[in-house]
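Entry 14: structure prediction run for YolD-like family protein. Input pasted below.
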Amino acid sequence: MATIKNIHDYTDIIETSYKKSTKYKQMKRKNRAAQFAPFAALTGYKDIIHDTERLTEEKRIIDENKRMLLDQKLKHFLKTQEMIKITYFKKDETKTEGCYLSIMQSVKRIDELYKTVILNNQQIIAIEDIYDLEEK
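Run finished. Output tokens:
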């Protein structure tokens, strides 16, 4: 019957002296430590998890009456230049949905060609993404 050797028994090499290589220079301590540094076996997995955690929602459909009312309000606020609360939909860069954001700002101009609103802080919002306009 064969004897089973303990793989954690190093008695045969424990007393052996270290022989320095004449062919290679000794590696610096910093570089030696880097060999044992942890690495991400699943590169990008953490980012995917973080991306999944973000809450998003679908863009709400606005009926024609509300769209006309928003257009009238927008033209009114352009004339008055007063600060308003604009709630708009911002599409997520990686998901199919997005989120609704609100900003307090006044309207600088309406670009009819690109169907956008340019605010006084130079932010541009597509008119179709505006969900609500409130006087503040």
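Notes: Residues 14 and 116 are 76 Å apart (CA to CA). Will compare against the previous run tomorrow.
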